Amino acid sequence: MTTIAIANAAADPVEKLLTFGPKNLWYAVCPSGFVGEKPVSLRRFGRKLALWRDASGQVHALEDHCPHRGGPLSQGVALGDRIACPYHGVEVRCDGTVTKVPGSPGCKLEGSRPALAFHVKEAHGAIFAFNADKNIDEPPAFTLPEELSSPEFSSFLCYSEWKCDWRYAMDNVMDPMHGTFLHKQSHSMAEGDSTAAFRIRDTETGFVFEKTGQRGVNFDWTEWGVTGTAWMRLEIPYPKTGGPGGNFAIVGCVTPINERMSAIFFWRCRKVDGWMRDTWRFLYRNRLEARHWAVLEQDRVMLEAMEPDANQREHLYQHDIGLVRLRRFLKTMATEQAQAAAG
């Protein structure tokens, strides 16, 4: 993003929401293994978060900003569900309440709730945080597609960080046709027509963008859904040499880190049970995973090489109606949230 674009994002509340992600949604913030009992600092959706685990393993998250003088809470000491700022020892509970001010006991800061707290949930090998601008007691629930929520499926989480606007990463997934060209040497995307017509099919939670007249041949469709969190789903056909389980499903989430960085989550899933589950997991780790990373690297290299304002200088055609629908959805959500905040 150029300096001018960043300035515009700061001045325009709608563009700011589009740059750092709409509010009041659950976002995947990191793999579970990133967070232990020692606090860590991660920047997500334009904010710094301090995350840590208590003795029971429960994850907590606060804005990485002490309400006293702005010291980094992540450099402090975790005390169960509280964290002590290293600068002046101010203790902040996981709900944003200041419980202790050692240097001035009984001052008005004690007992107040000035710190921004984030509700967190751990699921499917990742930690999710609810992105709100104010403290709330009960966030809404969220669900993910059946490939993750059903025990009939087995999955692996693939995590990466790309140096690009998070919207570029979502546009990439909402563009099935790029698989025919960018990934044409892939073991699973070498087949199918190089020309196609697309259609949009609405669902209860979003829409499906799909090729007409071709299914189960290449990367032929993508689904976008919002169920408390925003996700994308697609299928890649697999040859029999890919092991049991039929088509290979991918569930994806993208989280903005800042104007130029994105956190990328792809769960790679197959419907398998019993001995087939064990076979598939062994085959994935020992043979397929490296191939999947090679395909993902092609996407990363392409998006990181695009100019920051590339999406401002486009000439779209019929294959792009899926990402146009997605952009309109996000623009509408951001506009409504900006108007509500202004009102």
UniProtKB/TrEMBL annotation:
Top-rank lineage group of the source organism: Bacteria
Provenance organism: Ramlibacter agri
The protein's name in its UniProt record: Aromatic ring-hydroxylating dioxygenase subunit alpha
Phylogenetic lineage: Bacteria, Pseudomonadati, Pseudomonadota, Betaproteobacteria, Burkholderiales
InterPro entries for the chain: Cholesterol_7-desaturase (IPR050584), Rieske_2Fe-2S (IPR017941), Rieske_2Fe-2S_sf (IPR036922), VanA_C_cat (IPR044043)
GO molecular function, one term: dioxygenase activity
PANTHER family: 3-KETOSTEROID-9-ALPHA-MONOOXYGENASE, OXYGENASE COMPONENT, IRON-SULFUR DOMAIN CONTAINING PROTEIN
Transmembrane feature ranges: none
Keyword tags: 2Fe-2S, Dioxygenase, Iron, Iron-sulfur, Metal-binding, Oxidoreductase
PROSITE patterns assigned: RIESKE
Keyword Metal-binding: yes
Domain Rieske: 26-129
UniProt cross-references to Pfam families, sorted A to Z: Rieske (PF00355), VanA_C (PF19112)
Signal peptide positions on this chain: none
Record flagged with keyword Ligase: no
